[in-house]
Design goal:
111 residues; alpha+beta
């Protein structure tokens, strides 16, 4: 399972061995690597985690959108959960991402 400050918690589709000193699991080369194919197609053959769950409640929804909107109006910057694209400032770019993912009903899928 991967968890980040503002991304949807994402589980591997297959069990991952924790034997040995290196744990290697690449989510990025197929949507099917995440449980429920719960990843975003970023470009041909490259997948990534959904972002926008800034309050970490397991879904990207109007609550996240409201928080991002509020911080965007105040031009909040820095390492904050409402900066969903990670560029250091909360702005309309972040709002667009959260709005799109909210409209797509993105939520945690667990085994």
């Amino acid at each position: 399972m991967i968890n980040n400050r503002n991304h949807i918690e994402t589980w591997s589709a297959a069990p991952v061995s924790f034997v040995g000193s290196v744990i290697d699991y690449d989510f990025s080369d197929a949507a099917s690597k995440a449980y429920g194919d719960n990843q975003k197609n970023l470009t041909a053959g490259i997948y990534g985690l959904y972002t926008g769950d800034e309050n970490q409640d397991g879904s990207i929804d109007s609550n996240d959108l409201g928080d991002v909107d509020n911080d965007s109006a105040m031009f909040i910057g820095g390492y904050v959960s409402t900066d969903v694209n990670g560029d250091g400032i909360v702005d309309s770019n972040d709002l667009g991402i959260v709005d799109n993912n909210s409209a797509a009903f993105i939520f945690v899928m667990t085994p």
